[in-house]
Structure formats: structure tokens, C-alpha cells
Amino acid sequence: MPSNECNLFCFHLILLLFLHCSSSFISHALDSETDRLSLLSFKDELTDDPLDVMSSWNDSVRFCEWRGITCSSRRARVTMLSLPFQKLGGTLSPAIANLTFLRAIDLRGNVFRGPIPAEIGRLFRLRSLLLMENSFGGEIPANLSQCTQLEIINLNFNSLIGKIPTELSRLPNLVALHISANQLTGGIPPVLGNISTLLNLSIAQNYLGGTIPDNLGQLVNLQFLQVGSNNLSGTVPLSVFNLSRISIFGVAFNRLVGSLPSSIGTSLPNLKQLLIGVNGFSGNIPSSLSNISSLQIIDLPDNQFVGRVPSDFGRIANLQRVNVGRNLLGRGDSDPLDFINSLINCSKFEMLGIDNNHFSGPLPDKIANLSTNVNRLLLGGNQIPSTIGNLTKLFELRLDGNTLDTNIPSSLANCQQLQLLNLSDNDLSGPVPIQIFTLSSLTVTFNLARNFLSGTLPLDVGNFVNLKELDLSDNELSGSIPHSLGRCLSLEHVYLQCNSLNGSIPSSLSSLKGLQDLDLSRNNLTGSTYLSFCKIFFLQYLNLSYNQFQGQVPKNGAFANRSAVSLVGNGDLCGGSIELELSPCSVPTDPVGRNKSYLKVVITAVSGVFGSAGMLYIAISCILKRSRARSSLAFPSSDWNSNFSYRELEKATSGFSSDNLVGTGSFALVYKGLQSQDRRPIAVKVLKIQEKGTSKIYMAECEALSNIRHRNLVKVLGCCSDVDSAGRDFKAIVLDFMPNGSLEQWLHPEERNVNAVNDLNIFQRLSIAIDVASALEYLHYYCHIPIAHCDVKPGNVLLDDDLCAHLSDFGLAKFLRNRVMYVDKLKAVQLEYEDQLDMLLQV
Ligand SMILES: *[C@@H]1O[C@H](CO)[C@@H](O)[C@H](O)[C@H]1NC(C)=O
Ligand SMILES: *[C@@H]1O[C@H](CO)[C@@H](O)[C@H](O)[C@H]1NC(C)=O
Ligand SMILES: *[C@@H]1O[C@H](CO)[C@@H](O)[C@H](O)[C@H]1NC(C)=O
Ligand SMILES: *[C@@H]1O[C@H](CO)[C@@H](O)[C@H](O)[C@H]1NC(C)=O
Ligand SMILES: *[C@@H]1O[C@H](CO)[C@@H](O)[C@H](O)[C@H]1NC(C)=O
Ligand SMILES: *[C@@H]1O[C@H](CO)[C@@H](O)[C@H](O)[C@H]1NC(C)=O
Ligand SMILES: *[C@@H]1O[C@H](CO)[C@@H](O)[C@H](O)[C@H]1NC(C)=O
Ligand SMILES: *[C@@H]1O[C@H](CO)[C@@H](O)[C@H](O)[C@H]1NC(C)=O
Ligand SMILES: *[C@@H]1O[C@H](CO)[C@@H](O)[C@H](O)[C@H]1NC(C)=O
Ligand SMILES: *[C@@H]1O[C@H](CO)[C@@H](O)[C@H](O)[C@H]1NC(C)=O
Ligand SMILES: *[C@@H]1O[C@H](CO)[C@@H](O)[C@H](O)[C@H]1NC(C)=O
Ligand SMILES: *[C@@H]1O[C@H](CO)[C@@H](O)[C@H](O)[C@H]1NC(C)=O
């Protein structure tokens, strides 16, 4: 080729290449710009970003480098938007539909609300859409069916309504459809059976009615079927029991009926979990289940199964749980429990539930040889005398309602992880072995009610520091109620009625601030009923009847509520509220009504201040006049500030210098400081975050304080929840500074390392008592929701310049909301069904 032509040709070639490249360059640049704008629209729709994730989405770097963005390397188009668990709130902008190269969206675990934009249907390259654990509402957009590449849809745990769109059946590549835990209605569309690629189908915890369609039997690849906790009825189609790849078969909590096919062992050879509890299934438990070597969980409580439990479950090496409780099994069988013998071969075995059936006869000795992994044994409601072995990992043992007629074996104390022990309603006798009282692991209940147990309640009962319920009622226990019971600070329900206990109610019970039910009726208890008033507020049920209590009955708290308290059958009680219909006490009656008893208790509590009991009556009459006059003086709420930052407080206290440290407690350090704007003195109470329970205290205190204003309460200027300079959590409460310290320091000056010779005179003391009483009166009667401070003591009474007293420290305060009884019942039900709930969560 001649060189000119070559040059010309080359020139054209270069020109063409250049033009081509530049035009494609320009068009790429435009496409990229669309992506950038779409992302900015996405950002614009966000309203919450507490972790400040989106600050990286700025123009200092290309959008491909923004947090959560992945681009294709060649064209710089967005292929992935991934911001899971970032606490992002707001709506999802439809503009993401312009990110046409998107293959994956992962926004799970945020707080998105509003609809899932139907425009997502335009993302024809999308393969994976993960929006679970948000608050998306509205319907599932049918337009999703246009994303023909979609393989995974996960919308679990949102608030989606409406029906499951039938259009989803057109997704030719769908592998996983997870739409559990929403509010979907209608039924399961039969056309879902057309998605032959489907491996996972999870639509549990919705309001779906109707039946399980036969068409689902066409999903020959299905491995995971979870339709539990809906309102499905009818039988499970045989075709569905025929899906040979199924590993998890979850249909629990519906209204399904029919029996399990006897061939289930051959038709579901890959089954791991059979979850069919709380339905109306009937018939026998097929013995072919023992042929499924992959089985781990057989869970079929609350059905109508009859007959025997197959005796060779022990062949299933991986078996972990068998729960057949609350069925009709075992009736008329001579050896109905021999299946337990076979289970000893299952080395991973954890849980056996056979309660509330018709099992009878001796519990096989081999129960002691079950795997040491066993942690729950539910045997109640049958007729089986028992020996329990060395199941040291047991955390729940229910043997209630059997006919156990031995002593309680002390070896039970080896079960050091036991949280729940229920041996009630048996024929157990003898003393409760003292070793049992070493089980500080008990948290839920220790229930030995309705047996024939004798002996005394040992001091060691104080080991139950985390226990909620103690029920030893209807036995033959004698001796007194040990003082150490006051150490069991978690107790909410204590039932000791119908024994032969004597002595008085230990004053330590007043430490049990969470106590709701206390039944001591039908014992031989003596002494006064006058318990600490703070505690009494939480009692909803107090039964002291048929004892030998004497003296004055309080008028407050539980005693004020006729329906909550029972006192009959005590010879010598007087006073109390009118509804109790007791005779008046012989001391002069109170002319002023309820306020007096409050104030009297307060005065009694600080009577050390007065030193003289004779002052009491003078004090009371003074207080009654003055507290009325003062109690309505409230602070304006305008200077409440929840936004103190760590920096401000650091500055105010000169970097939390030890010179400014004015107090230390087990939960907090208190610093003096000066507010930067107005040089006003403040007290900064810094919580020791690392101490257990501190954040609960902070919440209680902030909640209480943001709701109350009174001149005799320490004025709170704000709370601070921030991170310190090292990035650790920092929580503090900012209060008005009280220059005269606490009443404690005045009463016991030796403890404050001060050579103060100041002593409070009687008028100052009286005034302080009045101030405290006014504060309490306000908290109990005039707050929107009554508040119990629960920690009134001189150390928490602070004095200002004028020695006016201010109550502080609301860390243990409780709102006396109307507690709802059925919550406890729900809790009990939940405990029963914990297993099934666990399983439903695998959606
Ligand atoms: C912009 O983003 C970069 C990281 O992408 C970040 O380092 C920088 O701090 C951000 N700028 C602003 C003003 O937030
Ligand atoms: C998508 O981009 C086009 C033009 O680039 C624009 O007109 C449209 O509003 C965008 N769509 C959304 C939903 O933002
Ligand atoms: C949903 O799909 C239909 C049919 O293709 C279309 O007409 C409509 O515009 C789409 N809706 C949205 C919001 O993209
Ligand atoms: C489901 O598939 C069957 C064939 O297997 C077809 O006849 C039917 O139209 C499909 N249904 C839908 C709604 O696509
Ligand atoms: C399908 O379900 C199984 C069992 O829960 C799970 O391990 C797997 O990740 C799921 N697959 C998809 C694609 O969601
Ligand atoms: C369950 O379905 C039945 C009809 O099969 C209906 O009567 C009932 O109201 C439904 N229950 C709920 C809670 O939706
Ligand atoms: C179950 O599967 C077997 C063999 O795969 C087949 O013969 C039978 O017809 C199926 N039954 C149903 C109800 O689908
Ligand atoms: C278990 O499988 C064996 C063969 O593997 C078979 O002979 C036996 O009948 C099966 N048992 C049941 C109860 O189906
Ligand atoms: C338990 O395993 C042993 C040894 O593998 C075997 O001999 C015995 O038959 C098995 N017992 C049961 C009940 O399966
Ligand atoms: C139970 O434990 C004791 C010792 O703690 C041991 O002697 C006994 O053999 C164990 N019993 C069984 C059945 O494992
Ligand atoms: C049960 O455990 C005891 C003590 O460990 C042992 O002697 C006995 O052989 C075991 N029984 C069986 C059937 O494994
Ligand atoms: C109560 O004590 C009296 C004597 O103090 C005694 O006679 C009576 O049997 C005791 N009652 C009970 C139930 O223990």
C-alpha cells in the first residue's frame, strides 16, 4: 500500500477510533452521572443516619468509593448497594430504579419505612433483593416479577400487607422467597408451585388462611418449607409429604389436620427438622421416622397423636430433640416409656418433652444415661414415679403432676445449670435437701408446691439471687421465714401459704422491690404487718389471712386496694383503709387522711434526725400545713436539655479532674462543674457504664426526671448519651449543683472528712423533713404517673444554699403503671412454646 494512502487510512482509523472512544467515553460519563444522581436521591430520602454512614457520600471521592457501593470495573456503573445494619431510616427512593446495572441490594436490618418502590421492577439485572428486618409497609410490588434475573427475595420481618402477588410465579430463576413475619393476608397462591427453581419458601408468621395447595408438590427442588404460624387449615397434601429434598418441614401453629403418612421415612429421606406442633394432627407417630438418619428435631407437641412413641428413635444418631408433649400418647400401653431406653445412643440429645400424655409406669433407669447435653426434660402431667440421674446440663426440669412419692434426691444439686425446677403436685416428702438451695442458677421458678415436704426453710434460700418465683405452698414446712430471703432481689412471686411457718415477717423482705405477689396465708405467723411502704407499691396481691398478725395495718400501697389484700382470720388487726373494715386502732385517729400516713412514714424514716419521738406529732401537724402550700410549686420545663455533649461536660469539669470529684458511688461518679455559657455551677453524674445494670439506671433516671418538676426534687438540667474521647460509651446526668452536700454528710460529718462543726438545729431538721415529705407527696400523688423513688435515704437528700432539701438519685425509681396481669400469663405460655417459637424464627 502506498505510504500516502496508508497515512490517510491510518489517519481515518485513528480518527474513527478516537470518535468511537470519545463518544462511548461521553456516554459512559453520562450514565455514570445518572448513577451518581440516583444515589444522591437515595441519600436525600434518608431521615435517620445515627452512625453517620452517609457522610462518606460526598464529592471528595468518586461515588464508586462511597461506603456500601460496588461498581463494575469497566464502566463504573453501580452493581451493588450494600448497607446492612446501619440504622438508616427513611423511605427507599424510587430513583434507585435508575441504577440499571444493579445486581444486588442489601439494606437488611435498617429502619426503612413506606413502600417498596414498584420501580424496582426496572432493575432487570437484579439478582438479590435483601430488605428484611425493616419497617417496609404496603404491598409486595407485583412489578418485582419483571426482574427476571432475581434469585433471592428476602422481605422477612417487615410490615407488608395484602396478598402474595401471583406474578412472582413468573420469576424463572427464583431460588429463595422469604416473606415471613409480615401481615400478609389471603392464601398461599397455588401458582407458586410453578417456580420449579425454588429451594427455600418461607412465608411463616403471617395471616394466611386457606389450605396448603397441592401444587406446592411440584416444587421438586424444595429444601426449606416454612409456613408455620398462619391460619392454614385442611390436610397437608400428600404431594408435599413427597418432596424428597425437604430438610426443614415447618407447618407448626396452624389448624392443620390429618395424619402423617406411614411412608414418611422413605418419602422425606433428607429431613432434618419436622416442626408440626400446635395443630390438629392425629393418628400414630410413624415408626418409619427412625429410618431418616438425618433427623435432628422431631417436634410435634399439642396435637392429637395416639399410640406408642416408636421405640427405635435411638437409631437416629443425630437426634437432638423429641417433643411429643400434650398429645394422647401412651394410653393402655404396658411399657410406654421404653423408647427412652433407646435414646441413650443419641450422643447429641438435648431435649425430651413427653408431658401431658397418658404415660404411666416407672421412668426407665437409663434416663440417667441420656446424653450429658440434655438440658430440658418435660415429663409433667403423666403418672410416672421417677429417679433422675446425672443430667448436669439440665436447665429445665418439669416433673409436676406425677406421683413421685420419694424424698427429693440431693443429687439434683448436681444440675448446676438448672433455671427452672417444677416438682409441684406430687407426693414428695421429707425435708428439701439443703444442697438444692445451692442452685443459684435458678432464675425462672422453684416450685415444690402441693407435696408433703417438711422441715424448715434454711438460710441458704438466700442463694436464689436471680429467682423470680418461689412456690413452696401447701406443704408441711415449719420454722420461720429466714431473713436471708431478702437477698433474693429478683423475686416477683412468693407463695408460702398453707404451711406451718411461725415467727414474724422478716424486715428484709422490704428489699424485694419487684415483689408482685406475696401469699403467706394459713401459717402461724405473728407480729406486725407493717412492711416498708416502698415495696408495698408493687404488690398486686398480698394474702396474709389466717395467721396471728397483730397491730396497725398501713393504709397505703397494696393495703389501700381492697381487692389486692386479704387479712381475714387474724385476731388483732386494726386501722387500715376503710374498705378493709377493720376496727380502728386505739391510738388517736388521723384527722387529715392519707397524707398523714405518708408524712409519718417519712418522718419515721428520718426520725434519727429529730432524735426525739416527742417531736413527731408537732412535726406532723406542721408538715400538713406547709406541704399543702408548697406542693404545687413546680419548675418550668423549658431548660430541660437532653443534648449535653461529652465535650461540653469535659470542658465544664476541667476534663473530669479529680479536684472536681465531689462524690463516688457504686454506679456513678459525681463531678462539680461550671456551665460554659453562664458559669452556672452544675453537678455531672457520670455513670460507670462497665457496671452491670448501669444503663437501666440511667434510663430509669432520665425517664423519671424528664417527667417531673418540683422544688424539692433536684433539678435536672439534662442527660448526656455520647462517646468519650476514646470512643467508649458515655452516659451522664447533669443536675443543679447543691453546695451543701447531702444530708448524710450533715448527720455523719465524720464520714466526709470535713471539720465541720455545723450541726442542724431542730427547725432546720424539721424543714428538711417537710421538704422530703413534699417531694414524696408530689411523686406519689401529683405526677402524671405515680413514681416510687425506692431509695429514700439521707445520702440522697441534697441541700442547697438555703439548706432547702432536694431529693435526688432516681436510679431505682419505678413508675407505678397499672401492671397488666395477663402479661405474666403470656410469659408462661411463651415459655411453654419457646421451642416452637425458636423454630419459627428460622425463617
Ligand atoms: C467525604 O468522604 C470521605 C471518605 O469517602 C471522608 O473521609 C471525608 O471525611 C468526607 N468528608 C466529609 C465532609 O464528610
Ligand atoms: C431516572 O432518570 C431519568 C433521566 O435520567 C429521570 O428523568 C427520572 O426522573 C429518573 N427516575 C427516578 C425515579 O429518579
Ligand atoms: C409496573 O409495571 C407495569 C407493567 O410493565 C408498568 O406499566 C408500570 O409503569 C410499572 N410501575 C412502575 C412504578 O414502574
Ligand atoms: C403454571 O404452569 C403450568 C404448566 O406447568 C401452566 O399451565 C400454567 O399456566 C402456569 N401458571 C401460571 C400462572 O403461570
Ligand atoms: C435457604 O434456607 C436455608 C435454611 O434456613 C439457609 O441456610 C439458606 O441460606 C437459605 N438460602 C437462601 C438462598 O436464602
Ligand atoms: C382463620 O380462618 C378461619 C376460617 O378458616 C376464620 O374463621 C378465622 O377467623 C381465621 N382466624 C384468623 C385469626 O384469621
Ligand atoms: C410420591 O412420589 C412417588 C415416587 O416418587 C410417586 O410414585 C407418588 O405418586 C407420589 N405421590 C404423590 C401423592 O405425589
Ligand atoms: C427402614 O428401612 C429398612 C431398609 O433400609 C426397611 O427394611 C424398613 O422396613 C424400614 N422401616 C420402616 C419402619 O419403614
Ligand atoms: C445402641 O448402640 C449400641 C452399640 O452401637 C447397640 O448395640 C444398641 O443396640 C443400640 N441401642 C439402641 C436402643 O438402639
Ligand atoms: C452419676 O454420678 C455419680 C457420681 O457423681 C456416678 O457414680 C454414677 O455412676 C453416675 N450415674 C450414671 C448413671 O451415670
Ligand atoms: C449407664 O451409665 C452407667 C454409669 O456410667 C454405666 O455403668 C452403664 O453401663 C450405663 N448404661 C448403659 C446402658 O450405657
Ligand atoms: C400454730 O401454733 C399453735 C400454738 O402456738 C399450735 O397449736 C398450732 O397447731 C399451730 N398451727 C399450725 C398450723 O402449725
TrEMBL record:
Binding site for ATP: 685
Topology term for the membrane: Single-pass membrane protein
Domain of life (superkingdom): Eukaryota
Gene3D superfamilies cross-referenced by the UniProt entry: Phosphorylase Kinase, domain 1, Ribonuclease Inhibitor, Transferase(Phosphotransferase) domain 1
A cellular component annotation (GO) from this entry: membrane
Signal peptide: 1-24
Listed transmembrane segments: 598-620
SMART domains listed in its UniProt record: LRR_TYP, S_TKc
Record SUPFAM superfamilies: L domain-like (SSF52058), Protein kinase-like (PK-like) (SSF56112)
Family: Belongs to the protein kinase superfamily. Ser/Thr protein kinase family.
Protein name (database record): Receptor-like protein kinase
The species this protein was found in: Sesamum angolense
